[in-house]
Amino acid sequence: MGYRTVVAPADSYLFYELLVPSHYPGVRSVSFMDVSATEVSSQPDRHRGTSHGLVCAHHHLYSALARGMPAPPADPGSFLEILQQVWWRLDRALDIETIEWSAKLGALEALEAGCTAIVDHHESPNAIEGSLSTIADACAEVGVRVSTCYGVTDRHGADGAERGLAENDAYLAAGGRGMVGVHAAFTCTDDTLAAAAELASRHGVGVHIHVAEGIDDVEAADRIRHLTNDKWLIVHGVHLPDDHGLAGTIVHNPRSNMNNSVGYSRPMRFTNPVALGTDGIGADMLDEFRVAYVKSREESLDHTPDLAWSWLQANEELFPEVRNDTVSWSYHTIEPWHLAYTTTVRAIDIDIDGKPALRDGNATRVDGDEIRAKAGEAAKKLFAKLEAMP
What we know:
CATH superfamily: Metal-dependent hydrolases
Number of helices: 11
Low-confidence stretches: 1-44
CATH class: Alpha Beta
Order of helices and strands: EEEEEEHHEHEEHEHEHEEHEHHEHEEEH
Helix content: 25-40%
């Protein structure tokens, strides 16, 4: 692939040269979510670019308090052991209070990163009832949109699965924005998978499910293929075959996949729409875009920033309302070829549905310092529970 040097126009305030592959003729006028990347002159500060709000296509807001948690009882040697010794212990320790403060903290950090909508997947087997409305209320207080669901599983017996289904049903029936959650096929019976699909169909929503993230779930496609439709979110897909036959949107979580050493999903091989999530590692979607880009670039020099950018843009289809949001950034040009190599781009001002939600980097609807302080107190209680676990 040939490269040539392009100098950005003077009014972009760009004082260095940019290498652009030669198969992109001319200087492109790239748009992000219909907001021109180069039209910064209309902003109060000409050094700021703007965009619509970003969307995180797969989050676990309950993980916001996990940072600094006690070490697991033994060092995990596989992805399944990571689940067993870290995440499944954490979700058993959650109560309504920690769910509330983890959601508020996660929503606040998302807002500060320019993310105005979150697709959340939740599990708290000892605090199921009311967990979804708690998350929704917490996000609404901060001003961030959320679609949430409860991850149904048979890990805690048939009763646990039934209670998870009931929580999804009650939340959706009350008008909550969400989906029907399933943890993963390998922790569910066929009957539970079918019940989740039926419940989703009844509410006119999709199923939000982890699929083939690790080798323990390689049979997932064969078990759920007949249940899926275009409304489903198929999260990870690391070990899916190219011709998996599943309907729905694949959600790529590159940082999490590397962190758990499960492999690279190579999402460009799928014919499904591909979106971008974080799997609970915050909601800084520009940062996740960069990780997605460099991971794809590691595989092939033919992969440009536009590929990972297309995954980030696909997130908007999950939350079209973000088109009503405006984010003003600390960097002047909001387009993939700039942002792939520009770190620490910060959200400065955000209007959600035309109303202020962030000004000068600070939330306007809540006290960010108070949320961090109370979340810290909740984390201490959560960690004490974890330390007391056998």
